[in-house]
Amino acid sequence: MNDTVATRKPAAANTADTPAAITLIExxxxxxxxxxxxxxSVLVLGEDVGVNGGVFRATAGLQQQFGPxxxxxxxLDETTIAGLTVGLASQxxxxxxxxxxxxxxxxxxxxxxxxxxRFRYRTRGRLTCPMVLRVPWGGGIRAPEHHSEANEAIFTxxxxxxxxxxxxxxxxxxxxxxxxxxxxxxxxxxxxxxxxQYKEVVPDDxxxxxxxxxxxLRDGSDVTLVTWGAQVKETLEAAEKLxxxxxxxxxxxxxxxRPLDFATIAESVxxxxxxxxxxxxxxTAGFGAEIAARLAEExxxxxxxxxxxxxxxxxxxxxxxxxxxxxxxVDRIVAAARRAxxxx
Length: 344
Prior knowledge:
This protein is of the alpha/beta class. It is about 35% helix and about 20% strand. It has two domains: about 20-200, 3-Layer(aba) Sandwich (Rossmann fold), CATH 3.40.50; about 215-340, Rossmann fold, CATH 3.40.50.920.
Protein backbone atom coordinates (compact mmCIF):
# COMPACT_ATOMS: atom_id res chain seq x y z
CA MET A 1 0.00 0.00 0.00
CA ASN A 2 1.14 3.54 -0.66
CA ASP A 3 2.31 5.64 2.25
CA THR A 4 0.32 8.82 1.71
CA VAL A 5 1.75 10.61 4.74
CA ALA A 6 5.26 10.90 3.36
CA THR A 7 4.28 13.04 0.39
CA ARG A 8 1.73 15.31 2.07
CA LYS A 9 2.70 18.93 2.71
CA PRO A 10 0.94 21.79 4.46
CA ALA A 11 -1.50 23.57 2.17
CA ALA A 12 -1.04 27.26 1.53
CA ALA A 13 -3.17 29.31 3.85
CA ASN A 14 -6.40 30.73 2.49
CA THR A 15 -5.94 34.47 2.87
CA ALA A 16 -9.53 35.41 2.09
CA ASP A 17 -11.55 36.35 5.17
CA THR A 18 -14.78 35.07 3.63
CA PRO A 19 -14.51 32.63 0.70
CA ALA A 20 -16.62 33.42 -2.32
CA ALA A 21 -19.51 31.14 -3.21
CA ILE A 22 -18.55 28.71 -5.97
CA THR A 23 -20.26 26.27 -8.32
CA LEU A 24 -19.90 22.50 -8.25
CA ILE A 25 -17.42 22.56 -11.15
CA GLU A 26 -15.35 25.19 -9.35
CA UNK A 27 -15.40 23.03 -6.23
CA UNK A 28 -13.95 20.17 -8.28
CA UNK A 29 -11.14 22.44 -9.49
CA UNK A 30 -10.54 23.67 -5.95
CA UNK A 31 -10.27 20.13 -4.58
CA UNK A 32 -7.88 19.03 -7.33
CA UNK A 33 -5.64 22.04 -6.78
CA UNK A 34 -5.61 21.50 -3.04
CA UNK A 35 -4.51 17.88 -3.29
CA UNK A 36 -1.91 18.67 -5.93
CA UNK A 37 -0.43 21.32 -3.62
CA UNK A 38 -0.18 19.04 -0.60
CA UNK A 39 0.67 15.73 -2.29
CA UNK A 40 3.28 15.46 -5.05
CA SER A 41 2.01 12.01 -6.06
CA VAL A 42 -1.33 13.43 -7.29
CA LEU A 43 -1.54 14.12 -11.00
CA VAL A 44 -4.32 14.77 -13.49
CA LEU A 45 -4.70 13.28 -16.97
CA GLY A 46 -7.25 13.11 -19.75
CA GLU A 47 -8.37 14.55 -23.06
CA ASP A 48 -7.87 18.33 -23.21
CA VAL A 49 -7.49 18.65 -19.42
CA GLY A 50 -4.23 20.61 -19.68
CA VAL A 51 -3.97 23.42 -22.21
CA ASN A 52 -7.74 23.81 -22.60
CA GLY A 53 -8.70 23.05 -18.99
CA GLY A 54 -11.18 20.33 -19.89
CA VAL A 55 -14.41 20.38 -21.88
CA PHE A 56 -16.30 21.59 -18.77
CA ARG A 57 -13.34 23.67 -17.46
CA ALA A 58 -12.89 21.45 -14.39
CA THR A 59 -9.10 21.57 -14.72
CA ALA A 60 -8.79 25.17 -15.90
CA GLY A 61 -5.50 26.71 -14.78
CA LEU A 62 -4.06 23.54 -13.28
CA GLN A 63 -1.46 22.92 -15.97
CA GLN A 64 -0.27 26.51 -15.69
CA GLN A 65 0.01 26.09 -11.92
CA PHE A 66 1.52 22.61 -11.70
CA GLY A 67 3.12 22.04 -15.10
CA PRO A 68 2.57 19.59 -17.97
CA UNK A 69 4.22 16.70 -16.12
CA UNK A 70 1.42 16.71 -13.53
CA UNK A 71 -1.48 17.78 -15.76
CA UNK A 72 -1.22 15.57 -18.84
CA UNK A 73 -3.07 16.01 -22.10
CA UNK A 74 -3.59 12.51 -23.48
CA UNK A 75 -4.54 11.22 -26.92
CA LEU A 76 -8.26 10.87 -27.66
CA ASP A 77 -8.12 7.24 -26.57
CA GLU A 78 -10.06 6.19 -23.48
CA THR A 79 -8.53 2.71 -23.41
CA THR A 80 -5.04 4.21 -23.18
CA ILE A 81 -6.15 6.71 -20.53
CA ALA A 82 -7.50 3.93 -18.33
CA GLY A 83 -4.46 1.70 -18.82
CA LEU A 84 -2.06 4.55 -18.08
CA THR A 85 -4.04 5.46 -14.96
CA VAL A 86 -3.94 1.92 -13.60
CA GLY A 87 -0.21 1.72 -14.34
CA LEU A 88 0.54 5.00 -12.57
CA ALA A 89 -1.51 3.97 -9.54
CA SER A 90 0.29 0.64 -9.32
CA GLN A 91 3.63 2.46 -9.19
CA UNK A 92 2.90 4.76 -6.27
CA UNK A 93 1.21 7.72 -7.95
CA UNK A 94 -2.36 8.93 -7.31
CA UNK A 95 -3.71 9.67 -10.77
CA UNK A 96 -7.00 11.47 -11.26
CA UNK A 97 -8.17 10.69 -14.78
CA UNK A 98 -11.10 12.21 -16.63
CA UNK A 99 -13.53 10.41 -18.89
CA UNK A 100 -14.68 13.38 -20.91
CA UNK A 101 -18.29 12.15 -20.93
CA UNK A 102 -20.14 9.28 -19.26
CA UNK A 103 -20.74 7.50 -22.56
CA UNK A 104 -17.00 7.44 -23.25
CA UNK A 105 -16.34 5.11 -20.29
CA UNK A 106 -17.03 1.86 -22.07
CA UNK A 107 -13.60 1.46 -23.71
CA UNK A 108 -12.17 1.89 -20.19
CA UNK A 109 -14.10 -0.99 -18.67
CA UNK A 110 -11.47 -3.67 -19.36
CA UNK A 111 -8.80 -1.85 -17.36
CA UNK A 112 -11.21 -0.73 -14.61
CA UNK A 113 -12.94 -4.06 -14.06
CA UNK A 114 -10.19 -6.55 -14.90
CA UNK A 115 -7.32 -4.72 -13.22
CA UNK A 116 -8.05 -1.64 -11.08
CA UNK A 117 -10.86 -3.29 -9.16
CA ARG A 118 -8.85 -6.49 -8.54
CA PHE A 119 -5.48 -5.28 -7.28
CA ARG A 120 -6.29 -5.77 -3.59
CA TYR A 121 -7.99 -9.12 -4.22
CA ARG A 122 -5.33 -10.37 -6.62
CA THR A 123 -2.46 -9.59 -4.24
CA ARG A 124 -4.26 -10.56 -1.01
CA GLY A 125 -4.12 -6.99 0.18
CA ARG A 126 -0.45 -6.34 -0.55
CA LEU A 127 -1.20 -3.86 -3.37
CA THR A 128 -3.95 -1.34 -3.99
CA CYS A 129 -4.86 0.93 -6.88
CA PRO A 130 -5.28 4.52 -5.60
CA MET A 131 -6.84 6.07 -8.68
CA VAL A 132 -9.87 8.28 -9.29
CA LEU A 133 -11.81 8.34 -12.54
CA ARG A 134 -13.80 11.56 -12.82
CA VAL A 135 -16.86 11.18 -15.03
CA PRO A 136 -19.17 14.02 -16.13
CA TRP A 137 -22.47 12.17 -15.76
CA GLY A 138 -26.14 12.32 -16.65
CA GLY A 139 -28.54 14.26 -18.82
CA GLY A 140 -30.16 17.63 -18.87
CA ILE A 141 -27.66 19.66 -20.93
CA ARG A 142 -29.08 18.98 -24.42
CA ALA A 143 -26.05 16.94 -25.45
CA PRO A 144 -26.03 14.27 -28.19
CA GLU A 145 -25.87 10.50 -27.86
CA HIS A 146 -23.11 9.11 -25.58
CA HIS A 147 -23.00 12.42 -23.70
CA SER A 148 -26.02 12.08 -21.37
CA GLU A 149 -25.91 8.61 -19.83
CA ALA A 150 -26.67 7.56 -16.27
CA ASN A 151 -24.61 4.37 -16.16
CA GLU A 152 -23.72 4.14 -12.46
CA ALA A 153 -25.40 0.75 -11.95
CA ILE A 154 -22.86 -0.94 -14.23
CA PHE A 155 -20.07 -0.07 -11.82
CA THR A 156 -21.93 -0.65 -8.55
CA UNK A 157 -21.95 -4.32 -9.54
CA UNK A 158 -18.13 -4.53 -9.59
CA UNK A 159 -16.41 -5.67 -6.38
CA UNK A 160 -13.36 -3.59 -5.51
CA UNK A 161 -14.67 -0.27 -6.81
CA UNK A 162 -16.06 2.67 -4.89
CA UNK A 163 -18.77 4.59 -6.71
CA UNK A 164 -19.34 8.16 -5.52
CA UNK A 165 -21.65 10.93 -6.75
CA UNK A 166 -21.80 14.41 -5.18
CA UNK A 167 -24.88 16.60 -5.34
CA UNK A 168 -23.62 20.02 -4.23
CA UNK A 169 -20.45 22.12 -4.39
CA UNK A 170 -19.58 21.40 -0.75
CA UNK A 171 -20.04 17.65 -1.13
CA UNK A 172 -18.14 17.68 -4.43
CA UNK A 173 -15.14 19.29 -2.72
CA UNK A 174 -15.17 17.09 0.37
CA UNK A 175 -15.92 13.81 -1.37
CA UNK A 176 -13.31 14.36 -4.10
CA UNK A 177 -10.64 14.99 -1.46
CA UNK A 178 -11.65 11.74 0.23
CA UNK A 179 -11.67 9.87 -3.09
CA UNK A 180 -8.13 10.99 -3.96
CA UNK A 181 -6.90 9.92 -0.51
CA UNK A 182 -8.64 6.54 -0.77
CA UNK A 183 -6.22 3.66 -1.48
CA UNK A 184 -8.69 1.80 -3.68
CA UNK A 185 -10.10 2.88 -7.07
CA UNK A 186 -12.99 5.34 -7.07
CA UNK A 187 -15.42 6.12 -9.89
CA UNK A 188 -16.39 9.73 -9.22
CA UNK A 189 -19.54 10.62 -11.16
CA UNK A 190 -20.15 14.37 -11.48
CA UNK A 191 -23.73 15.41 -12.40
CA UNK A 192 -23.04 17.85 -15.19
CA UNK A 193 -26.58 19.24 -15.17
CA UNK A 194 -25.78 20.93 -11.85
CA UNK A 195 -22.16 21.86 -12.60
CA UNK A 196 -23.15 25.55 -12.64
CA GLN A 197 -26.73 25.44 -11.37
CA TYR A 198 -26.09 27.12 -8.03
CA LYS A 199 -23.30 28.22 -5.71
CA GLU A 200 -22.22 27.55 -2.14
CA VAL A 201 -19.46 28.87 0.07
CA VAL A 202 -16.86 26.08 0.16
CA PRO A 203 -13.79 26.86 2.29
CA ASP A 204 -10.59 25.50 0.76
CA ASP A 205 -9.58 23.96 4.08
CA UNK A 206 -8.66 20.44 2.94
CA UNK A 207 -11.39 18.89 5.07
CA UNK A 208 -12.63 15.71 3.40
CA UNK A 209 -16.12 14.37 3.85
CA UNK A 210 -16.55 10.71 4.78
CA UNK A 211 -17.13 8.20 2.03
CA UNK A 212 -19.47 5.22 2.41
CA UNK A 213 -22.19 7.19 4.22
CA UNK A 214 -25.54 8.61 3.20
CA UNK A 215 -26.36 12.23 4.03
CA UNK A 216 -29.73 13.08 5.56
CA LEU A 217 -30.51 16.47 4.02
CA ARG A 218 -33.98 16.92 5.49
CA ASP A 219 -35.66 15.23 8.45
CA GLY A 220 -39.15 13.82 8.06
CA SER A 221 -41.59 11.39 9.61
CA ASP A 222 -44.09 10.34 6.91
CA VAL A 223 -42.05 9.15 3.92
CA THR A 224 -38.38 8.61 3.06
CA LEU A 225 -37.13 10.00 -0.27
CA VAL A 226 -33.85 8.40 -1.36
CA THR A 227 -31.83 9.82 -4.24
CA TRP A 228 -28.40 10.88 -5.48
CA GLY A 229 -26.66 13.22 -7.89
CA ALA A 230 -28.59 15.82 -9.85
CA GLN A 231 -31.94 14.46 -8.65
CA VAL A 232 -31.27 15.70 -5.11
CA LYS A 233 -32.43 19.17 -6.12
CA GLU A 234 -35.79 18.00 -7.48
CA THR A 235 -36.25 15.67 -4.51
CA LEU A 236 -35.72 18.48 -2.02
CA GLU A 237 -38.16 20.63 -3.99
CA ALA A 238 -40.68 17.77 -3.89
CA ALA A 239 -40.23 17.50 -0.12
CA GLU A 240 -40.96 21.20 0.19
CA LYS A 241 -44.10 20.83 -1.93
CA LEU A 242 -45.23 17.87 0.19
CA UNK A 243 -44.67 19.92 3.32
CA UNK A 244 -47.21 22.39 1.97
CA UNK A 245 -49.70 19.52 2.02
CA UNK A 246 -48.84 18.60 5.59
CA UNK A 247 -46.62 15.65 4.57
CA UNK A 248 -43.24 15.35 6.30
CA UNK A 249 -40.65 13.87 3.91
CA UNK A 250 -37.14 12.84 4.91
CA UNK A 251 -34.57 13.29 2.12
CA UNK A 252 -31.47 11.11 1.91
CA UNK A 253 -28.58 11.74 -0.48
CA UNK A 254 -26.90 8.35 -0.99
CA UNK A 255 -23.62 10.04 -2.15
CA UNK A 256 -21.58 6.79 -2.05
CA UNK A 257 -23.45 4.14 -4.01
CA ARG A 258 -20.88 1.43 -3.45
CA PRO A 259 -20.43 0.48 -0.69
CA LEU A 260 -23.97 1.44 0.23
CA ASP A 261 -24.76 2.82 3.67
CA PHE A 262 -27.99 0.87 3.90
CA ALA A 263 -28.23 1.35 7.67
CA THR A 264 -29.11 5.04 7.28
CA ILE A 265 -31.86 4.23 4.78
CA ALA A 266 -33.23 1.39 6.90
CA GLU A 267 -33.30 3.53 10.03
CA SER A 268 -35.26 6.22 8.22
CA VAL A 269 -37.76 3.73 6.79
CA UNK A 270 -38.22 2.18 10.23
CA UNK A 271 -39.64 5.55 11.31
CA UNK A 272 -41.55 6.59 8.18
CA UNK A 273 -42.74 3.20 6.91
CA UNK A 274 -42.61 4.39 3.31
CA UNK A 275 -39.87 4.87 0.74
CA UNK A 276 -39.61 6.55 -2.65
CA UNK A 277 -36.38 6.03 -4.61
CA UNK A 278 -35.50 8.61 -7.26
CA UNK A 279 -32.86 8.27 -10.00
CA UNK A 280 -32.50 9.31 -13.63
CA UNK A 281 -31.07 6.03 -14.94
CA UNK A 282 -33.49 3.63 -16.66
CA UNK A 283 -35.73 1.75 -14.22
CA THR A 284 -34.85 -1.85 -15.04
CA ALA A 285 -31.81 -2.95 -13.00
CA GLY A 286 -31.08 0.62 -11.98
CA PHE A 287 -29.35 1.07 -8.63
CA GLY A 288 -32.71 1.88 -7.06
CA ALA A 289 -33.65 -1.76 -7.59
CA GLU A 290 -30.82 -2.79 -5.25
CA ILE A 291 -32.09 -0.46 -2.53
CA ALA A 292 -35.65 -1.73 -3.01
CA ALA A 293 -34.44 -5.33 -2.79
CA ARG A 294 -32.53 -4.64 0.43
CA LEU A 295 -35.64 -3.05 1.91
CA ALA A 296 -37.67 -6.12 0.96
CA GLU A 297 -35.07 -8.43 2.52
CA GLU A 298 -34.21 -6.51 5.67
CA UNK A 299 -36.98 -3.97 6.35
CA UNK A 300 -40.13 -5.75 5.16
CA UNK A 301 -41.91 -5.48 8.50
CA UNK A 302 -41.21 -1.74 8.73
CA UNK A 303 -42.86 -0.99 5.39
CA UNK A 304 -46.44 0.24 5.40
CA UNK A 305 -46.58 0.51 1.61
CA UNK A 306 -44.76 -0.87 -1.45
CA UNK A 307 -41.49 0.85 -2.31
CA UNK A 308 -41.96 3.39 -5.11
CA UNK A 309 -39.37 4.10 -7.81
CA UNK A 310 -39.31 7.32 -9.83
CA UNK A 311 -36.76 6.90 -12.60
CA UNK A 312 -35.82 7.49 -16.18
CA UNK A 313 -37.52 5.28 -18.72
CA UNK A 314 -36.22 2.06 -20.26
CA UNK A 315 -34.87 3.79 -23.33
CA UNK A 316 -31.89 5.90 -24.27
CA UNK A 317 -32.34 9.48 -23.19
CA UNK A 318 -34.23 11.29 -25.97
CA UNK A 319 -32.92 14.25 -27.93
CA UNK A 320 -33.69 17.09 -27.32
CA UNK A 321 -37.25 18.21 -26.73
CA UNK A 322 -38.20 15.24 -24.57
CA UNK A 323 -35.03 15.24 -22.48
CA UNK A 324 -36.50 16.96 -19.44
CA UNK A 325 -39.65 14.82 -19.72
CA UNK A 326 -37.42 11.77 -19.43
CA UNK A 327 -35.76 12.99 -16.23
CA UNK A 328 -37.75 12.60 -13.00
CA UNK A 329 -39.33 15.89 -12.01
CA VAL A 330 -40.92 17.29 -8.89
CA ASP A 331 -44.47 16.32 -9.88
CA ARG A 332 -43.56 12.68 -10.49
CA ILE A 333 -41.79 12.48 -7.12
CA VAL A 334 -44.73 14.08 -5.31
CA ALA A 335 -47.17 11.69 -7.02
CA ALA A 336 -45.10 8.68 -5.92
CA ALA A 337 -45.05 9.92 -2.33
CA ARG A 338 -48.82 10.36 -2.40
CA ARG A 339 -49.24 6.80 -3.71
CA ALA A 340 -47.10 5.48 -0.87
CA UNK A 341 -49.10 7.44 1.66
CA UNK A 342 -52.39 6.13 0.22
CA UNK A 343 -51.56 2.72 1.68
CA UNK A 344 -52.44 2.10 5.30
